[in-house]
Predict the 3D structure of the following.
Amino acid sequence: MTATLRVLGLAKRFGAVAALADASFDARVGELLGLIGPNGAGKTTLLECVAGVLAADHGTVSLGDASLEYASRKDALFYLPDGMQPWPDQRAGWVLEFAEALFQAPAGSRDDLIGSLQLAPLLDKRVGMLSKGERKRLTIGLGLLTQQPFLLLDEPFDGLDLRQSREVAAVLRAHAGRGRGLCLSIHQLADAARLCDRLVLLADGVTVGEGTLAELREKAGVPGGGIEEVFLALT
């Protein structure tokens, strides 16, 4: 899979509120793409519209030269929302085993993720008893057991400390290197700049910039500036 996932001009209103006005970006196989912006910028709504969880009012989603209609998006995209607590009464080990079978993951995938995401101490714990950070690592593992070429993750580092964020980012990068595109919604700008290959800047439901940090610095006219300065300059 080498095709680019292209999102063009998505718009979504909730009554009088325009959650998205003109949101566009490209996601490529083999990269970590960071979708960044403050709370309320429209990041979650954008991912939900891309995934087909919400119907956009306007705009298109395509893969390569082919338009992705709602019914076919589940074959190309898997969306992992923030705050999931799957089967809270089940033990984490059972949840991983069930997901491995459900998603028809390659043999050994579950064991690899248990090691790389440090899930072994959690396997006998019930999901409802996990801490926020533990549950986050578990649900990321569930997402990585899926087989769709593009994975959309809403706030994958929320609840993780600095060391855990770096470790999880390394796992995500390894999966991207095996032929997946990962689009990550992140509200902490510094985390996104440090961990992602390219960035999409979203403000008030509009894409105001896309590219590497160096490219965004050039566009914003702030050479050497941090991601916070770039974001403020472009908004």
